[in-house]
Amino acid sequence: MRIVCPFCGERELGEFTYLGDAKPARPAADAGEDAVFDYVYLRDNVAGAMSEHWYHSGGCRAWLKVTRNTLTHEISAVEPAAGAGAAKVGA
Amino acid sequence: MVGGPQTHRLSNGGLIDRSAPLSFRFDGKTYVGFQGDTLASALVANGVKLVGRSFKYHRPRGILTAGSEEPNALVELRSGARREPNTKATTAELYEGLEVASQNRWPSLRHDFMAVNQLFAPIFVAGFYYKTFMWPAKFWEAIYEPAIRRAAGLGRAAGVADPDHYDKAWAHCDVLIAGSGPAGLAAALAAGRSGARIILCEEDFALGGRLLADGGTIDGRPAAEWISRTLAELGSMPDVRIMTRTTLFGVYDGGTYGAIERVNDHLPSPPEHQVRQRLWRIVAKRCVVAAGSIERPIVFAGNDTPGVMMASAMRTYVTRYAATPGKRIALFTNNEDGWRTVEAALGAGLQVAAVIDARPDVSPAHRSLASKSGFTVLHGSVSSVEGGKDGVRKIAVLLTGGARAEVEADGLAVSGGWNPAVGLTSYHRGRPKWRDDIAAFVPDGAPPGMVAVGAANGAFGLGACLREGFEAGAAAASDAGRNGNAGAAPVAEDEAFSLTPLWRVAGKGKAFVDQQHDITASDVELAQREGFESVEHLKRYTTLGMATDQGKTSNIAGLAIMAAVSGKSIPETGTTIYRPPYVPIAIGAFAGHHRDEAFHATRLTPSHHWAAEQGAVFVDTGLWKRAQWYPRAGEKDWLESVTREVKSVRGGVGFCDVSTLGKIDVHGADAGAFLDRVYINTFSNLAVGKARYGLMLREDGLVYDDGTTSRLAEDHYFLTTTTAKAGPVMQHLEFCRQVLFPELDVQLTSVSDQWAQFSIAGPKTRDVLKEIVDPAEDLSNEGFPFMGARKVALRGGIRARLFRISFSGEMAFEISVPARYGEALVRNLMQAGKQFGVTPYGTEALGVMRVEKGHVAGPELNGTTTASDLGLGKMMSTKKDFIGRVMAGREALIAPDRQVVVGIKPTDKVRRLRSGAHIIPKGQTPGPDNDQGYVTSVCFSPTLDQWIGLGLVERGRERIGEIVRAHDPLRGEEYDVELCNPVFYDPDGGRQRG
């Protein structure tokens, strides 16, 4: 499999580390135990297009959101995580 | 020149170099072949028909094919460490001095004792493993399996390490082409002219595919001329790479392909500094599969007799190698193509005894060939072959209409039609589709970017192969963005195609479907009767197609027979799933250079070379080699050395390389806020110039990692991790920074390899440091108090970072210098510290002192403990959110009866405490119901002069002073231990603050 890193270009699978489903969002601090439990443990078993977190561990160390079809391994989109990439000068 | 004459070699013709004779040995006997021979063709040329014994029944077997589909002619090549079992004689290239041994026979190939297995054939039927050796179960390992392994098997592994090297490499191209037959070369021509970057892989050592044996006319000229003209044109192109001896074996996601290049298998041993094989991963925008097709057998009694050969293979031996498999041959065919073997045989001056043609009619041209050449055409089928280890003698024919006939011949060519090689196109779980017109499965689609052409696509005619290949080559180039002028396509005529499907002829005697695994037609019938009708069940129950040839000549016949006996059509019966690799690949090729000491990378600490000079004993911790202890002359064991090191630190001063800790620079206006979110305790309020111990949780509330983090400037923290978690913590923190908290202005830099770090510990630490650090730096307790951290200058001006932190419990500093100065610093420390008795200590002494101080480490940070379990629950801030906060509050994680860290010491001071021992209440019988925890870490404490340890024990903190039992069934020990404060040494911490 090959992933087009937005910073490094097309790279081989071995450079990346898989994390998992990118859909669950970390609940706010006051969200309560149930919401955090869902966030930590509950996952959809997607057959088809799924957005996933991948880490370019053998490259630029960017966290990426990769849309991958779990049935065909076809990758239709790769986006950097919001805080990936160059330093936010003056932020 | 040695050896006898090549009795079965034609006096001229063939693509062999008669000026280059090569002698080789087969089962101890010397023979001679020529450059350009395979082992199989050289054996054929020497009249050797018997080359092996079959897997189960030890039946004599010969050579069936002339390619990588060969099921029978498997041999051991070479000897000693380079012995390679189960190698196909049909693909092994001949070289001078090649040593070959036949397999699976005893005492000799001609007189194989195990051939008595045939008499017991009834017990070797399909599923015999499952049926015969069911009971008693313990007999399986002790008796049945060893006996079966001895009796049924293949070659022997060398049994010693492979002395050769294997390589792995990447390659990239626009268009990858599998196969150099007419379709493959035409594809290369079109893609190359269009300007594409091409890689063409050919399994054979010669280019041309079937053209090498079958010839033909292309663009009005002989095929050989077209091949050399095409190769010359391809050779003139800037970016065409043609790889012979290279098999494309697998298709992976994203246009990645696996190929094995047999770089030096054709030489006695690889030249110096060269590899035997190279595993390629090829990334291609497009792939054209021109892998050809495989001729299929017809199943009849005695079809495994040496001398029965695929028709195409027989004419390959005759035309390409000028070697004659027989003097008087017959042909059994159900299609037009088989007749080309008769033409080739006649052309080479062989006698043709008869043609048995299963079709209703043969063409007038063939009829007149028969009458002109004096052989008969029999309409019908071969019902059995009579013969033995010396080959075919007589062929029994069942004529259409029911009459019988006999043909005397010493060779039988068989053609049941052609199966396109659908492996590569089916490796993404594609299922080929059945085409009635050619009675064969063809690719039904292909993985993205791939297309099959020519015979691999069911287009068997030479003209069609050229046309399809050329068109696909041009289209692939265009898809890859190369649109040059492809010019004119090569042109040839298509041969006539006529085939009447025939899979099996009923008759008395064993009729083999899968010759390598000895699966007969009646095994397939038996499987059907017993309910294993699905082809996947058929395969696993009978092992049909599961041998090293992966059923290239047997799968389709097997499923056709299954279709017939179960009353279904062939497409209804379907194929099994195709999986890579297409040919067997040596494990060594997958490993490449990653073996022995290069199995993984080795990381050396900055003081490694110096430590090695001191005679340090090293221990592997992950990829690192760390000094474990530094033995001195006269010390009788490790314990004596470690005890000395601990005493030297506690009574004087010592140092230890701690560079393996993960180190991360955290920069930015929000660095403090960021650390507050990833640690359970607060870092935003840490004063500049101070260090603080921090603990991280996972989001599920369990402890992840710990370490010391220092604030070097308002917007700069220096964070350390444990050695084991250096990489994972970096990844975790980047996730927090980039994904969870992108709004924070913070940057992370891994500096683990940039800094050499040493712990200097003991009451005389300052004395040593003063010799190292610039005299202007204030190291007094007031000027540099406990948990102070700042940048300092060393004597000579080198910039360093100094941290007053202590793992040992002594007055201690950790000092960081740029990694390149690490070794110099160690040498300076030894020099400057000599007068104070400075002692290097290793990870063992480090561990002893941390247990004495009750510090938790890997055995306690084991992924199941909470902060509270470790006695660090009070560090959890209630004023902020942090990773793991909510889940850490779950019921079971705050239950009062959790196992928590506690100190443990045997009541008998001379007893050795062992880690792993279970803690049982006194007076109770050991068992899972009253198991209250276990000992996690132990050491011999020189300070307390006894073995001590830490453990995780239920309610341990409430039970200080209680005597319990340590139960160690592994070592057969049980003894009393006392639960105690985990901080055995200096519980008030006065020494580290002094």
Automatic annotation (TrEMBL), chain A:
GO-annotated biological processes: tetrahydrofolate metabolic process
InterPro entries documented for this protein: SoxD, SoxD_sf
MF (Gene Ontology): sarcosine oxidase activity
Name of the protein: Sarcosine oxidase subunit delta family protein
From TrEMBL, chain B:
Lineage: superkingdom: Bacteria
Keywords for the protein's UniProt record, in alphabetical order: Oxidoreductase
An individual GO BP term: tetrahydrofolate metabolic process
Listed transmembrane segments: none
InterPro entries, alphabetized: 2Fe-2S-bd_N, FAD/NAD-bd_sf, GcvT/YgfZ/DmdA, GcvT/YgfZ_C, GcvT_C, GCVT_N, Sarcosine_oxidase_asu, SoxA_A3
NCBIfam families on file: soxA
Protein name stated in the entry: Sarcosine oxidase subunit alpha
Organism encoding this protein: Mesorhizobium waimense
